[in-house]
Amino acid sequence: MVVISFATYEIKIGTILGLLYYEHNNPCGTRGASVGAETNMIKAVWNGKIIAESERTEIVEGNHYFPPDAVRQEFVQPSETRTHCPWKGEAHYYSLLVDGQTNVDAAWYYPDPKPAAKSISGRIAFWKGVKIVA
Fold first, then answer.
1. Of 16, 34, 42, 107, which one's alpha carbon is 20 to 30 angstroms from that of 58?
2. What are the b/e assignments for 35-57, b being 16+ CB within 10 Å?
3. How far apart are CA 103 and CA 85, in angstroms?
């Protein structure tokens, strides 16, 4: 595993079953770290279950944002948590519930992002131990 630390967040990169994954500890991070589109099949995995799977994620600040229809709704529960990112806007959260275990606020999305972040409107990203596997 490789750990990359920045002033405001940390990214861990490694492999699971020979597949590349990464995780981080800050959903807002520092603007401009990494932006782009991923065209490989990307999966979000937690507690042994695939939470989301898509060939078309948007990458912003190192986070894969999945289309809403790529997320398995049986594993997500709305949360009342809200945070604010200066350039993306207000983030809303989901908690994950898998096999009786809860991962509070492990997913977030921007329902009405600021113009600079329109590409991730409604898309869902993960953290808090959710593995992103390529």
1. 16
2. eeebeeebbbbbbeeebbbbeeb
3. 22
Domain span including residue 67: 2-133
Q: What does the block give as tokens for 7?
A: 């002033």
pTM over 0.90: no
Q: Is the dihedral of CA 71, 40, 121, 14 positive or negative?
A: positive
Please write the tens of the pLDDT for every residue from 46-86.
999 999 999 999 999 999 999 999 999 999 999 999 999 99
In 3-state terms, what secondary structure has residue 117? helix
Q: CA–CA separation, 73 vs 52, rounded Å?
A: 9
Give the mean model confidence (pLDDT) for residues 127-134: 95
Cβ atoms of residues 41 and 32 within 8 Å: no
Q: Is residue 134 very low, low, confident or very high in pLDDT (cuts 50, 70, 90)?
A: confident
The letter for the amino acid at 31 is: R
